[in-house]
Each structure stands twice: as C-alpha cells, then as structure tokens.
Amino acid sequence: MSENQYTFENEIYKNTYRHTTSHILAQAVKRLHPGAKLAIGPAIDDGFYYDLDVPEPFAQDALDAIEAEMRKIIKEKLPLERFELPRAEAVALMRERGEPYKIELIEDLPEDAVISFYKQGEFTDLCAGPHLDGTARVKANAVKLLSATGAYWRGDSNNKMLQRVYGTCFQTKAELDAHLERIEEAKKRDHNKIGRELEYFTTVDYIGQGLPILMPKGAKVMQILQRFVEDEEARRGYLLTKTPFMAKRELYKISGHWDHYRDGMFILGGQDDYDDETKEVLALRPMTCPFQFQVYLSKTRSYRDLPMRFNETSTLFRNEASGEMHGLIRVRQFTISEGHLACRPDQVEGEFRGCVELAGFMLKTLGLDNEIAYRFSKWDPADKEKYIGSADDWESVQSLMKTILDDIGLDYVEADGEAAFYGPKLDIQIKNVHGKEDTLITIQIDFQLAERFGMEYVDSDGTKKLPYIIHRTSIGCYERVLALLIEHYAGALPLWLSPVQVAVLPITERAHAYAQGVADRLDGAGFRVETDTRNEKIGYKIREAQMQKIPYMLVLGDKEAESGALSVRSRSAGDLGETALEDFIAKITLECKERL
Q1: Residue 278 has pLDDT above 90, yes or no
Q2: CATH-assigned architecture of domain 3-177
Q3: How far from 47 is each of 20, 85, 178, 179, CA to CA, in Å?
Q4: Closest to 441 measured CA to CA, from 464, 487, 472, 411
Q5: Whether pLDDT at 252 is above 90
Q6: Angle, helices 11-32/60-75, rounded to nearest 10 degrees
Q7: Which H or E run includes 361?
Q8: What is the per-residue pLDDT across 6-61, written as a single tens digit (0 to 9) for each?
Q9: Looking at the chain, which residues constitute the CATH 3.30.930.10 domain(s)?
Q10: Cα–Cα dist 389/260, whole Å
C-alpha cells in the first residue's frame, strides 16, 4: 500500500485501521477485566465493536475506564506481529489463555485454513487480519467508545448473551467531533424517541418485544398511507384481496415455507405436533403469497386474463430474534403493501418495470427517494439446501432479472445468498438515522411456486402453461415506513400526512364559539383539526402545538371573531398574518393535493 493510500478514502485502509482499534479495545478490556472472554471484533461501517463474555454489563464509568486504557495502549506504541500455528497448537494456545469462543472458531475453520494470530504487547488474538503495524498508527484523541449492549454469540438466541462494545475512530479529532455531532443529531431524529414523545406509538413489556401499540396519531398516519397505496394500486389495475392470518401446516408445505422458513414462523401448538400428521397444526402467515394464489386457482385462467395483479394490505408475523428488535423498524407483527402478479413470459419485463416504477412513485411522494440503494439479491450455489429449484433454473431466471435491471438502468449491487428461497429479487435498501440498513421494498421473480400450486393458464394454442409470479411490495412495511418518515422529517410530517393538520387556538373564552365554528368548517372540508380550549396563555398553546409538530396554527381572539378572519401561524415559517377562512382552506387544499 503506497503512502498516499493511508487515508480513510481508501476503504481497505479504513477497515484495517478500525479493525486494529477493535483489538486495542479488547486488550484494554483484558487489562482491566482479566476474566473477560474474547469473541469477535470486526470493523463496521461507522467504527468497530468487540463482543466479550463478562460477568456484568459495562456501565458508562466502565466504558470511560476502558477508553482511557485504550489511549494508554496507543501511546505505548506496541508493534503488531502476525504469526501462524497448526490447528492443534492454535487450540492449545487459546485453551491456555482461557478463550473458549476462539477455540470454537478455530474448530469451525476448514482443514486447510491458515490459522493466524496477531500479537501486541501481552495481548494475542486469533485473527485473519489485516492490521496496522503498530498501535501508534491510531490517533489517541480520535477514539471514542459509544455504547455497550447485549448480543448473542453468533447471533443465535440459543447461545449466551455477550456484551458488545461499540466504538468509532478517525484520523483526526475534528473528524471524530463531526461524527459525534452527527450521532447526536441522529438521536434527536430517532423515531424511538420522537415517535413516543409525539404519541405515535408505545410498547409494553408484558405484551412483548416487537409488538408495538400504535396510538391514535400513529394509527391515523398508517390509515392515510394505506388508503393512498390502495387507491394508487387500484388505478394501476390491481385487484384487492383479504385473506386469513393463519393456515394449516399443509399450505406452507406446498409453498415450501414449512421446510425453508419454519424457524421464522409462529406455529400454534407444541413442537411435538409439528410432524404429527394426525393433528391439525396452524401457523401465522409470514407471507401472503400462498393465500393470494388461491384467488387465481378459484377458476380456470386464460392467457387473455394475464397479467393478473393482486394486492393486499397484509398483516404478517415473523419470529425475529429479540436482539434484532428496534422500535417500528423491525417488529414481529407488521403490515405490508403486498402484491402478486401472474403473467406470461412475454409480460414479465413490462410488469417488473411497472413494479419498479410504482415503488419509485411511492418513494418520491414520501420524500425518501434520495435515500435508497438497489440490491440484486441472488442465490448462493454453495448453499443449495437453502433454496428450491435446479441450478439451471436459478441461473436462467437470474440472467433474466439482470437483463431487466440493466435495461431499466438501475445502479445496483449484487448480493449472493440474499435471494428468497423461491427466486431472485430486487431489494430497495434504506438506512435509518443510525446508519443501519434495512430492506424497504422488494420485487421478486418467482419461477417455482406456480408449479407447486398448479397455477396454470390456457395459452392461445390451447396448451396449459405456468405463469411467472412477481412478488412485490409497493411501499414495504408500513411500520418501517412510519419510522423512516418520523426520522426523515424529524417528526414534522408533510401536511397531507400529519395526523393533526391544523390547531385552532382561541385566545380567550369569548372566542371559543368562533373557534369552534372555524374548526367545524375545516373538519367539514376534510381536514384533521384540534381545538385547544384550555385556560392557558396563548404563548403556551402555540409552543405546545409547535412541539407537537402541527403544520398550521390558527390564533383566534376578539379581533378575529369580530372580523371573521384568521391569524395564521406556520410550523416552519412562523406568523403568516391574517387571511380569510376560504382562502386558508384553498391554500391547504392545494398543499394536500400536491402532497407537500
């Protein structure tokens, strides 16, 4: 690596720098807590972490002490030395040092794997590398430990809970300070904070993780979104369905979910009943596709019937790991704008394009279109047990999807092993304020389930053929979208989406009757209005409405009641002066129509 590549502009160097810092973190923990057991410590997008087995969670004072020890290690200018050992000697070294997690990692390595270690001072760690040549390369004043949280060993809830210490580091203190400032801004925008403060949702321990309660404001935004999506889909030729939340195991066996997705499902009844064919076993649905297929199968279909586009606002249930739960972003029960299109081979590209265009329209309308990335999710030929279908079929359909994506002109990355078990997909990815990436919208080409369910159509030559199925969402998971909107707009949702659009604020009791008349007129025009008749000063009422992120406030006193005018305040622009009620209604009607 040439000298001019030793900057964070070089992704390899940045990851090497941060990986080295994770080792410094682990060394500091071992100095201060000799009984700690080492797990793993990689570099990540915005820093690094190390998983450790310790008797008690690290409080803030413990993190402060570890961070101070890290700075000492950096100033000791310890060289990092790489060495290799045969498997038996590697296991013996880790056993001598009391590192059971490292032994497990060594034993999982292939027989011909190179087993390497890195040593810095008294600290030695199993690691493939690469690393910097010494701790002095890391800038002591540009390192910060951010938090400690629980994380299951290898992400498996059946394993022990470890302590994951997160940190970040940069090449200068100024870069670190700028990053920490971004983190503080992200905390202010975190939907988990704002959404609760604005009373969009809440969670209750004795209801369970990943099962949020949408409060009236959050439920109202969800209702607005759902109506918008369903109306738009109807305009595009979709047929609305309503299907059951659960089904017998036999349905999921046909679809393949029972064999390939069972661990992610909520199954009613004991595990002993799963394979007992004499008992009826029900499971909550993780997807809607096998249910909507029954609509297609309700009668014989002709090539003239295709394409058929089914949509549904679906409630789904997925048994997410508890460590993955996060507010409304990742939950166990959620609502999705699901749809399935049955089409002839000659219609696949046009219908796929239509799905991409619909998703783009939704994202642009919501203001999220500049925050997304596209991922072409493919199968992993080295893990064929994870999928159904032949290798030839997979390669053929993936080639078809790649051609379509290239024809559309999407800028995408390819990801092996991220396909659904029945077909490749386009994932539209988005990051929350903390930089964690999730899938928002998926569009999949399914070349297998039609055959499993016998979904035939009679072609123009009288022969029976199988359609392609496109699985898609148009807006994705509504709960996730709500979370992202709260974060994107810092709670100040656009007028058309705001649960309360106008706050009517009478200054005195004498203005109550006039205020109620104004509120009634707005309500009759279809706007969401709240009237604050509390015996409080008008300044207090304005501040309260501003804190609730209400787009418009109408301040009404004796003067307004006498003249029949409105004194209008905007959430963003402040005092807008006086206007007539009809003019105000015309103004906000236009804003809502243009979805501003």
Answers
A1: no
A2: 2-Layer Sandwich (3.30)
A3: 11, 29, 14, 10
A4: 472
A5: yes
A6: 110
A7: helix 348-366
A8: 889 899 999 999 999 999 999 999 999 999 999 999 999 889 999 999 999 999 99
A9: 201-243+288-488
A10: 12
Which residue ranges does the chain devote to CATH 3.30.980.10? 3-177
Whether residue 467 has a cis bond before it, omega within 30° of 0 = no
Structure token digits, residue 37: 């057991």
Chain position carrying tokens 């800028």:
411
Rounded to whole angstroms, the Cα distance separating 596 from 577 reads 21
Model pLDDT, residue 4: 57
Model pLDDT for residues 152-188, shown as the tens digit of each residue: 998 887 899 999 999 999 999 999 999 999 989 888 9
Q: Helix 216-235 crosses helix 478-488 at what angle (to 10 degrees)?
A: 110
Phi, psi of 81 (to 5 degrees): -120, 130
DSSP 121: T
- The Cα 6–Cα 3 span in angstroms is 6
Q: Is 53 left (phi over 0), alpha (psi -120 to 50) or beta?
A: beta
> What average pLDDT does this structure show over 206-219?
95
- Residues of the chain within CATH 3.40.50.800 domain(s) are 502-593
Residue 574 CB partners (closer than 8 Å, separation 6+)? none
How many whole angstroms separate alpha carbon 115 and alpha carbon 270?
A: 43
Q: Does domain 502-593 have CATH number 3.40.50.300?
A: no
Six token digits for residue 364: 């642009």
Alpha-carbon distances, residue 316 vs 243, 334, 335, 443, 475 (angstroms): 11, 5, 6, 17, 15
Q: Which pTM does this prediction carry?
A: 0.84
Say which residue, 97 or 275, is predicted with more confidence. Answer: 97
For the stretch 324-337, pLDDT in tens is 778 999 999 999 99
Distance of alpha carbon 451 from alpha carbon 456, whole angstroms: 8
Q: Range with the lowest mean pLDDT among 331-340, 378-387, 470-479?
A: 378-387
Residue carrying the six token digits 């951010």: 146
How many residues in total does the chain contain? 596
Token pair for residue 471? 């699985």
DSSP 266-318: -EES-GGGTT-TTS--EEE-S-SHHHHHHHHTTS--BGGG-SEEEEEEEEEE-
- Structurally, at CATH architecture level, domain 201-243+288-488 sits in 2-Layer Sandwich (3.30)
Contact 71, 143 (CB under 8 A): yes
Residues whose CB is less than 8 angstroms from the CB of residue 577 and which lie 6 or more positions away in sequence, other chains included? 567, 568
- Kindly report the backbone phi and psi dihedral angles of residue 10, in degrees, each rounded to the nearest multiple of 5, phi listed first: -90, 110
Each residue of 572-596: pLDDT tens digit?
Answer: 999 999 999 999 999 999 999 999 7
pLDDT one-digit tens code per residue, 58-115: 999 999 999 999 999 999 999 999 999 999 999 999 999 999 999 999 999 988 889 9
Q: Are 487 and 431 in contact (CB under 8 A)?
A: no
Indicate if the pLDDT at residue 1 is higher than 50. no
